[in-house]
Each structure stands twice: as C-alpha cells, then as structure tokens.
Design brief:
- The structure holds 3 protein chains of 3 kinds.
- In chain A, 32% of the residues lie in helices and 21% in strands.
- By secondary structure, chain A is an alpha+beta fold.
- Chain A has 2 domains: 203 residues, no CATH class; 119 residues, no CATH class.
- Chain A has an 8-stranded mixed beta sheet with strand order 3-2-6-7-8-9-1-10. In chain A, strands 5-4-12-11 form a 4-stranded antiparallel beta sheet, with no helix packed on it.
- Chain A starts with 7 loop residues before the first strand and ends in a 7-residue tail after the last helix.
- By secondary structure, chain B is α/β, with parallel strands linked by helices.
- Chain B has 2 domains: 260 residues, no CATH class; 43 residues, Nuclear Transport Factor 2, Chain: A.
- In chain B, helix 5 packs across helix 10.
- The longest helix of chain B is centred in the last third of the chain and has 15 residues.
- Classes of the chains: A alpha+beta, B alpha/beta, C alpha/beta.
- Chains in contact: A-B, A-C, B-C.
C-alpha cells in the first residue's frame, strides 16, 4: 500500500472521456458482461456502467497474454514439402482497464516461467505491448485471500497506472514510466487534493480488512513436502474433485498448454491452447500414466502452486483471487486444504 | 429430516452395511453445500439437507469402490437407477437415502432478482411457496418459482421411486411445466439461421473445461471420445465449431441416460445454456421412444434394445 | 533455487522462435523390429546442417506437420555428423504417422533440448552400459561417442536385452560392438526362439551374473521403467553408489522447453533439467512418481 506523489483524479462520470482519449493509441479493454459472464472485452466506445457493478472477471486477464487458443504458425503443404509461415508478432497495443491487483500480480508470476531459459515469443511480445490500468478493490469477494499472499486489494506492484475508488471519483497514480507518461499526455484530469489522498488511504485500509479468508503460508512448502507421500490424506482431499479444468483454466497463474496440429488439404496450423493438469490424460504416455489416480493430480495442482513453483522461481503461483473457490462445481476449496495440512510426523 | 439422515447414515456405517456415505455438508461459501464422501461415522454429523444441495451425487458412484450409502433427490435417484440399468452399479451395492425434493434454489436467479452477488446477501430462506431474502438489513419476498432452477420448475419425479430409506413426506411432481420449458420452446421457435448464430455465439465462450461432462453421472466413460487421438475426433482447441460438436456428440451419447438434473448448465463457468440442448434431447427421447431415463431399474437402457414397433421412417 | 542454469546450451532457433521447427528430410529408414524404426535425416538448410551440434543424451521435438510433435532422443553420435538419427517405437498418433513416412519425406525438427550425459564425469572410468529394447537409442549415441574417443575411457561393458530376438534393436551396432575387442558386449533376451543360441535372461538378472566391478565405474541405464526399477537395486548391491548410476527419464512432453507444464516430477522438468539424471538426483526428487 504505497502512496505515490502527484496523483490526479477523474470523476467516475467522466471515465468515458478518459477511455476515448486512450482509444486513440490503444485498443481499450474494459469489464463487460456477456450472458452474465464478466470478462474483459473491447470497449464499445460508450458504455461505462461497469463502474457500478464490476468486482472481478470470470476469465482472468492472462487470456490477453496466453490466450485460450492461438496459432503458433501455419504451414503449406506442397506435395511432400512444407513451408512454414510464422504469424506476425501480436503487436497490438492494448490497454486493459480496471485489472485487479491479484490478476496483475499473476502476470508477474507468469512472466518468470515464460522468460526462463527459452523465451516464449508469443507471450512476451504481448507483454511488451499491453498497458495495465489497475483498479483497487473496495468490495472483495468472500472467496478472496490476496492478503495472505503478500498482496492487498490496493497493491499497485505490477500495474502501469493505479486507480483508487474514493467515492465519486477515481484517484489516479502513475506507477511505471509508461504509466506516468500516459497520465502526462492525458487531458481532463484534475489534480488530487490532500483530502483525496487521505480518503484513498482510508479506502485502502478498509478494503484490506474486508478480505476475511486467510491461509498461513509460513513454511507452506515444507509442510507440503512432509505430507507429500501421504496417500490416504490426498485421497481424502481429492474425494469430491471431479477432475474438470475450471480451477486451473480460470486461474490467473496457471499456464499449462497443449500443442496440436491441423491439416486441411494443403493448409495447416499448429495451435497452442489451454490445458490442465487436472485432466486424466494430461500426463498419459502409451505405456503408463504417472498421474492416473485423481489424488495424484489434485496433489500436483496444490504442490505445483505452493511448493514447486516456489522452489523454482521464489514465488507462490497463487494470488488469492478466489476464482477456483467461486467457480468450482463441487466447492472444492484450496484454502481449506492448505489450512488443514497434517502436521509433521 | 437432517437428524434422521445423520442417524441413518451413522447406523449404516456402524453396522458395516456400507463402506462410504455420500451426502452434502455445508460449503465454504455462503448458501453453498459441498459433497461429503466419508468412511468416518463422526463426519456424518456434518450432513445437511437444505435448498442448496445442488450436486448430483450419483456422479461419484462409478469411482467409489465398495458399498455406498448415497443421499439422492428425485433426479439423482433416477441417475442411480440409470447406472444400475447400465450395469455400472449393482443395486445391492447402494443404499439409497431418498430425499423428497421441493426444488433447489438457483443462486444466479437470486442474484439477478436482488441485484447483488451471493456473498453480499445475508439470508435466504424458503418458507413454503415463498422465499425470503435479506440483504443490507432489508428483506424481500418472492414466489419460490422465481428462484428455483429451471429443471426443478419442471420436475417429473421429486420423490425417489427407488430408495431404501425415504427421509420425509413425498412431494408431488410439478404439473405446469411451462416455465421450465420456456427457453427451450423459444429456441425451437427460431428459424435455423438465427438459431445457428445463437449457438455458435454461445459456444464461442466455451473454454473446454469439461465441467459439464464431469458433473454428469451419465458420462462415465473411462476415456471420453474427446480424449481419443487415433482417430482424433475433435481438436482440443476451444474453437466454437469444435465446442459445438463436443456438445452435440455428448448429448447423443447421454441420450436415454440424462435425467435433467441440470448440473451441466449450473456447472458451466461461462453460462452456456446447456440445458437448452440436454432438455430438448430428453424431450426427443420421450417423443420417439416413449422413454424416460432412470424410472425402472429392471428396464434395459434405451440404446441397448430394439422393439419391432419402433419408428423406421428415418430409414429411406 | 532449483532451476538449472542452461545458458550454456546452444540454441538453434528458427527465425528466433523456439517453437518453430526446422525442416528436415528423411534420408534413410531402418526397420529395427516390427514396431521400431530408425530414421536418418538432415536439415534442408545447408548452413544449419553444418552448424548444428548436440551432445549425447539430448533430444529434439520432431514434427509430422498436420499430425503433431513428439520428443525423440538423438540416437546418432555427435562424433559422426554426416546425418542425424532418431529411433521411433509405434505407440500413438505421431509415432504411427512417422512410421507411414518414406525416404524423402519432410519432417520438422527443433532442438537440441535437455541436458546430456556428463562426459567429464565418465572420462577415465570403466563404463557399464545397460539397455533394454528401444532404450538403447540414447545409449548408442553415447557408446559411439565413447568408442570414437576410446583412449579417454576405461573398460566398456554393454549389457543389452530385449523381450525376444525379434525385439533386439540396432542389430548392426550389436554386431560391431561384439567384434570390437575393446568392448565387452553381452546380449540377452527374456525369451529365446528356435534360432536363438545366445543368452536368455532378464537384463537385471544378467547384470547380476556378469557382476561388473563398481570400483572406478559408472553405470548408464536406459530402458523401460520396469527394467530400470529392477536394475537399480542390483547395481547398488554390486557396490555402485547412487552417484555412479546414470539414467534417462521419459515423460509425456509437448513443448520440450519447460513451459507447457506436463513433464514435471516435483519441481524438476524432465525436458529442461533432464532427461539425464543420476540415481542420486532421482532419490532427491520431491516426488517419488518418476
């Protein structure tokens, strides 16, 4: 929770003017509802009613960087010969408006794996071209637990600009150079007063305490390590899981993908699409499947996020957004599992 | 009813009549329940019966090894019978604790009526044919038919016919099913082009999470057709064309087994109106074959037998 | 941090994109057994053909365009660079498609990925190669590598077995190594047939009978998981420490570069941190599900 100097503000009623200006340089994405499903969609140019009802999206903003499906390259078949054609790098400049701190932090977590060793050109080129305008939460869900993971509803760590809801107005602060630059070239912003700044501070404090769900992450990786082989424990934990992909596909820090080819007559494409370690065939080889049993897959999901990713990259692959809890068809709750790990024997 | 349920379930475990009890316990979110699958007779005290017991627990029968004492609403009991018809579960291996069900509350309908999310509400309680909802200290009352799931509004068998223990007084089926059929009739009335656009648009949101398949007791294949690679029937890529084909084929595969429990539509995280497909298939099965899934455990499953009198007009 | 530093590994990236394969042409196909074929290939691009290097143990992702990609270890030796080789056992979609290809067909190949057999640790040592079935493929790259630099290494024992005489792969190599006086070649089959006059016995049993000395030795084991699981205890019994035992692990792979997530064992990615591991490393994995 930092206060950055030289903050500006804009009245909520004037958000449209702000977005219009930004639309000149960026394709602007805002929260929208499609058949009741909240997701980021291209701004239609007029509607800013999301300001009243928006809490968080169902589809996480990782979809802008690691889309549910994308073409990796195309190929042409000419008799027995192939010509590969790489798609033009996705250089579309996008501005994602009102991304929540948990989702922005998730992108920073994902960066680590996509930058590691062999850079992933698809993900990273998109990261370069997209600006994140964060919006602090004032109404966290009962499933949110960001405060247990070193973050908060007003965490500006990984956005370019940060907005804080101070009532009728949004306080605007530049975080990165790109963000500060955008503010500098935006007209129609008022200077924020000291009263505004202290109101923002109150709002942030209040929001922090509205997050009631908590987990204890102290020594979580060694706790998980010590119960790793406890088959009975994990069988019980996994009993009601139905092995669908909701928790992982809609998780902002999950990144598993599948690669598949299609060839129709002489034109073909290699696709990349979302995949999930929860699916039974995820690790299946012709002769054996190391995660045939459901409890192994559930254990993998929990341990990858709270132990393995931590070991490899120094950060837990979870930001406490709560989507997995809200959307699970059987209300399987990772916080319940993490809060009841068996003690070291 | 809850007390009786806990007593009976505990007795079943203590007497060794079942290896598992499968029921509902309070969930970790407000107005939510979650499946309880346990061998521990102490945990049975957590069992609940309330207007939020959504899941079709028959789904767990094909993976549990041993005898199971299972809590079943009307639709769930039909799924159990359907599994028995398919020889996936033996009648002697289940003890059905039947619950006459007056309907389950659809939280998304409640959220729509009140204009608030589930976690912002204070109380939801059913009082006869009314529901009382408290939010921000204010209460509002609605007819129960405004908040029940669509399939509950058309329920044909609220009280299990096949059971070992019945927990409560039988409830009568719904007589006027028009509210439950509204969306389906509307789609049937659309000409082909707009209807095609409707579905291609809806299925564009699909992310291939397979929750619809995995919550369904009728989908019990060890290896689903989408998981086959030789030949590969569908791409794993979530294009609307592949997504639509997945739904079409899944519906054909579960025809005659679907009991309209509505779980597929409820589980979908991107609000695809799946019941509009499954219920239409259910109705077609009823029209063509005069068959309703899961009614009589001694009947053969629909697609495995042939009657001479069956329609042949599709053979040209 | 458990992440391996792989900055020193050469990268041959087509157009700067790690996922884009290079086009290669199949030059020769050898039918090793009814279900196993070896493919000899070369890159279409002249420059790449000359510049491409790899180390024994590394693998590449081979594409049959329109069908998919699969990981195969490079079974030729870096010391014999007129072509590259990999061996394919028919098992699923991509491998079946590969088996339908003929000489002259174009495939995609990207790599080399993964780590390699640690030659520095093997130099001056007596080497015991233990292979089963198609597991000889990664081993043969190393065996020829070692034979081509013979003076750097001590004794060479090769114990190789297959289910039956018809399942023995790389017969031409087995013959060469049998004739090579500087190599002790022991071939066995689980079950003989009428024509078979050689040894019969499971590889771990034959290993126990041959009982190579553990002193100043390193064992390199490749084969089906079940063979490996029974071979390790025999080696330990013979006095090999876990650091003296090397193997390669196999997992379902897609990206081959540690990103798609599926080949992990705990925090280790077999494609990125392996596929070559010592038994000591395997014992230290957080998960025993290798």
């Amino acid at each position: 929770m930092r206060l950055i100097n030289n903050s500006k503000k804009v009245n909520k009623k004037d958000i449209g003017k702000l977005l219009s200006q930004w639309s000149e340089e960026f394709v602007v994405f805002v929260p929208s509802k499609e058949n009741g499903v909240v997701m980021m969609a291209k701004w239609d140019g007029t509607d800013t009613s999301f300001v009243d009802w928006y809490r968080n999206t169902v589809i996480p903003p990782k979809a802008h960087f690691l889309p549910p499906m994308e073409e990796m390259f195309r190929f042409q078949k000419d008799k027995g010969s192939y010509q590969l054609e790489q798609p033009a790098s996705d250089g579309q400049k996008q501005l994602i408006f009102a991304i929540r701190p948990c989702d922005a932090n998730a992108l920073a977590i994902l960066d680590k794996v996509f930058e590691d060793a062999y850079e992933d050109p698809y993900y990273l080129s998109r990261r370069k071209n997209r600006l994140l305008v964060g919006l602090g939460c004032t109404n966290p869900y009962d499933s949110c637990f960001c405060t247990s993971l070193g973050s908060s509803p007003s965490d500006a760590a990984n956005v370019d600009l940060m907005l804080t809801d101070i009532g009728d107005e949004f306080l605007i602060e530049g975080v990165t150079d790109a963000g500060k630059q955008l503010i500098a070239q935006t007209s129609g912003l008022e200077e924020a007063t000291e009263a505004d700044d202290s109101r923002a501070k109150e709002v942030r404090e209040a929001s922090y305490h509205k997050v009631t769900r908590r987990i204890d992450t102290k020594d979580i990786n060694s706790k998980l390590l010590s119960c790793f082989e406890d088959e009975d424990y994990w069988e019980k934990v996994a009993a009601k899981c139905i092995s669908c992909g909701i928790c992982t596909l809609l998780c902002p820090t999950c990144y598993c993908f599948d690669i598949s080819d299609e060839l129709v007559k002489q034109q073909g494409t290699r696709f990349r699409c979302w995949d999930s370690c929860a699916f039974p065939i995820y690790t299946k080889m012709p002769m054996e499947n190391p995660r045939e049993e459901k409890w192994r897959r559930v254990r993998q999901k929990v341990c990858h996020k709270y132990e393995f990713y931590l070991m490899n990259f120094g950060v837990i692959a979870c930001t406490g957004c709560g989507r997995c809890i809200r959307l699970c068809p059987v209300n399987w709750d990772i916080t319940q599992t993490l809060n009841s790990l068996p003690a070291k024997t | 009813m809850e007390q009786k349920l806990r007593r009976e379930a505990k007795a079943l475990l203590e007497q060794g009549q079942v290896d598992y009890i499968v029921g509902f316990e309070p969930g970790s979110l407000k107005f939510t329940t979650t499946p309880l699958i346990t061998r521990d007779k102490e945990e049975v005290d957590r069992l609940v019966i309330n207007p939020f017991i959504v899941n079709n627990l028959a789904n767990f029968l094909t993976e549990l090894k041993g005898r199971v004492g299972i809590i079943a609403k009307g639709c769930d009991s039909r799924s159990i019978v359907s599994l028995i018809q398919d020889n996936k579960v033996a009648r002697e291996d289940v003890v059905i604790l039947g619950i006459p069900c007056p309907g389950i509350i659809d939280l998304s309908k409640v959220e729509e009526l009140i204009g608030k999310d589930r976690d912002e509400l204070e109380a939801i309680s059913r009082e006869g044919d009314k529901v009382v909802i408290t939010a921000d200290g204010k209460t509002s009352e609605f007819s129960i038919t405004e908040v029940l799931f669509d399939n509950c509004l058309g329920c044909e068998l609220p009280t299990p016919q096949e059971y070992d223990i019945l927990l409560g007084e039988p409830t009568l089926p719904v007589t006027d099913r028009s509210a439950s059929q509204a969306k389906i009739e509307q789609l049937k009335g659309m000409p082909p082009q707009p209807r095609w656009e409707f579905w291609s648009n809806e299925l564009s949101r699909c992310i291939r999470c397979y929750a619809c398949r995995n919550v369904c007791p009728a989908c019990f294949c060890q290896r689903c057709f989408v998981e086959e690679t030789e030949p590969q029937w569908l791409m794993p890529v979530p294009r609307w064309q592949d997504n639509l084909m997945f739904q079409v084929i899944r519906n054909i595969h579960v025809a005659g087994r679907c009991t309209d429990c509505g779980e597929c539509e409820r589980a979908c995280p991107v609000n695809i109106p799946l019941r509009s497909l499954t219920k239409e298939m259910y109705d077609i099965v009823g029209e063509l074959f005069h068959f309703k899934a899961g009614m009589d455990k001694d009947t053969a499953p629909l697609m495995t037998h042939y009657e001479q009198e069956e329609a042949e007009d599709f053979i040209r | 941090m458990a992440i391996t530093d792989i900055s020193h590994r050469k990268r041959f990236l087509a157009q700067g994109n790690v996922y884009l394969p290079h086009i290669a042409v199949i030059e020769k196909i050898i039918e090793e057994t009814p279900g196993v074929r070896t493919f000899h290939f070369n890159f279409k691009d002249e420059k790449l053909r000359e510049e491409f290097t790899f180390e024994s143990g590394q693998f590449g992702e081979c594409s049959v365009f329109g069908v998919g990609e699969a990981p195969f270890c490079i079974s030729s030796s870096p010391t014999r660079r007129d072509h590259l080789e990999f061996a394919v056992q028919q098992a699923g979609r991509v491998t079946n498609a590969l088996h339908r290809l003929g000489v002259g067909a174009e495939i995609g190949f990207r790599g080399p990925y993964g780590n390699s057999f640690p030659l520095e640790l093997l130099q001056g040592k007596n080497l015991v190669f233990i292979g089963g079935g198609i597991g000889l493929a990664p081993l043969r790259s190393l065996i020829w590598n070692v034979i081509d630099n013979r003076e750097k290494y001590g004794n060479i024992d090769i114990i190789y077995g297959a289910r039956s005489p018809a399942d023995l792969c790389f017969g031409y190599d087995l013959d060469s190594w049998d004739k090579d006086r500087a190599v002790n070649m022991i071939t066995t089959v689980d079950r003989g047939d009428e024509g078979w006059t050689g040894r019969v016995g499971l590889v771990p049993h034959v290993l126990e009978q041959v009982a190579p000395a553990a002193d100043n030795a390193v064992a390199i084991v490749c084969g089906p998981p079940i063979m490996i699981r029974f071979t390790f205890p025999v080696l330990v019994k013979l006095g090999f420490t876990p650091e003296q035992i090397i193997t390669t692990l196999e997992k379902r792979m897609k990206c081959g570069i540690g990103k798609c997530g599926r080949c992990n064992i705990g925090n280790i990615y077999v494609c990125r941190d392996g596929p070559v591991f010592t038994y000591a490393q395997i014992k230290s994995f957080v998960s025993s599900e290798y």
